[in-house]
Amino acid sequence: MSAVARGAVHHADGRGRPAAMLEGMFRATLVAARGACFPDPADERNRTMSEDTTPYTPPRKWTWNRNNGGKFAGINRPVAGPTHDKALPVGRHPLQLYSLATPNGVKATVMLEELLELGHAGAEYDAWLIDIYQGEQFGSGFVAINPNSRIPALVDRSAKQPQRVFESGAILLHLAEKFGALLPADSARRSECLSWLFWQVGSAPFLGGGFGHFYAYAPEKLEYPIDRYAMEAKRQLDVLDRRLAESPYIAGGEYSIADIAIWPWYGALVLGRLYDAATFLQVRDYPHVQRWAQRIDARPAVQRGRMVNRPWGDPAGQLRERHAASDFDLHTQDKLAPRATN
Q1: Closest CA to 105 of 260, 212, 334
Q2: In terms of pLDDT, which residue wins out, 51 or 140?
Q3: Which of 63, 105, 186, 236 has the smallest count of CB within 10 Å of its CB?
Q4: For the chain, domain boundaries
Q5: How far apart are alpha carbons 307 and 198 in whole angstroms?
Q6: Per the omega criterion (within 30 degrees of 0), is the bond before 152 cis?
Q7: pLDDT exceeds 50 at position 8
Q8: Average pLDDT for residues 59-87, to the nearest whole number?
């Protein structure tokens, strides 16, 4: 402050305002003037963001923007059918699985490993890796067994005419009925099990395609969709927690395809393996789901099933293709491509 200015504020003015008040008013005027000439960068950023944030008005007709898909922009498209010719490999077992170790893929491999654990030798299978990030689900061979181009897909060659089975829930039901296992025979308990199986089929898209997409994969974080689907994910966890407070397993007292369907999604979520969202969703608020998830996680067949068609994570946990039980000991990625040693 200049000497002239300091002198001006040491005396009361003609309206009787004290010097201290005048000094405060004078300082405020200087700050306002300085701000007009040299705006604070943070304020300027906030102003610009506010100006740039305009509501999206949908056009009368939607058109495909190939670059507006986030992580999956390179493979998402608004049409079905194959993009290229590629035959699927076929192994020596009657059951041929084409998949990837996403939650839906893990359902199928856990089911097959559980059947083998129960002694069903006819459940031996070949598991072939379908890299969805590279668009392999759009190959002609895969589209022929799943016109929806989604993993997993199964071909059952045990009959004279091979049978394709697509959609993970359908695969679980097909295998449960084929081998008479992991699905209650009693009508009431069977209905309870199937109700929860289809609860998962209907609910998981809100967790995966809703919450998971906007929280983990979308090109920008948007509060509304994240908040909307976080609320729904937590509601679903509460549904499960209330159910598991009264029953050791989802469909009752016995482990079933309902658990196998639900665990890869909701079990992985509360165990901190999905979307890095355990803290955000406060999964420890669901103790019964936690107990159930840990119990299933300890099952040997589940541990094997998680490894099959897995091309990421710890190399010792990656069995990219599975053709025999011995593959878990001999053909995991750490053994096929050992780490370089000094």
Answers
A1: 260
A2: 140
A3: 63
A4: 1-33, 187-313
A5: 25
A6: yes
A7: no
A8: 87
DSSP states along 108-154: HHHHHHHHHHTT-GGG-EEEEE--GGGTGGGBHHHHHH-TT--S-EE
User: Which of 218-225's residues contact partners 24+ apart within 8 Å by CB, and which partners?
Assistant: 218/70, 219/68, 219/70
pLDDT tens by residue, 56-71: 899 999 998 877 767 7
Q: Where are the alpha helices (DSSP H) in the chain?
A: 3-8, 19-37, 41-52, 103-117, 140-145, 168-179, 187-205, 223-244, 257-262, 268-270, 287-297, 300-307, 327-330, 333-336
Burial 237-255 (b: 16+ CB within 10 A, else e): beebbebbeeeebbbbebb
What 3-state class would DSSP assign to 223?
A: helix
Please state, in angstroms and rounded to a whole number, the distance separating the CA atoms of residues 144 and 34.
70
**Region 187-313: CATH code:** 1.20.1050.10
* Closest C-alpha to 233, from 187, 286, 296: 286
Beta bridge partners, 163, equal 156
276 residue type, one letter: D
Give kind and range of the element (H or E) at residue 95.
strand 95-99
Q: Name the token pair of 73.
A: 């922009």
- Three-class DSSP category at 234: helix
What gap in Å lies between CA 265 and CA 274, rounded to an integer?
A: 8
Q: What is the pLDDT of residues 111-146, one digit of tens each?
A: 999 999 999 999 999 999 999 999 999 999 999 999
- Those residues with Cβ within 8 angstroms of residue 319's Cβ, 6 or more apart along the chain or in another chain: 307, 308, 309, 310, 327, 328, 331, 332, 333
Dihedral angle sign, alpha carbons of residues 292, 258, 262, 163: positive
- pLDDT computed for residue 76 by the predictor: 86
Q: Copy the structure tokens of residue 306.
A: 């998680």
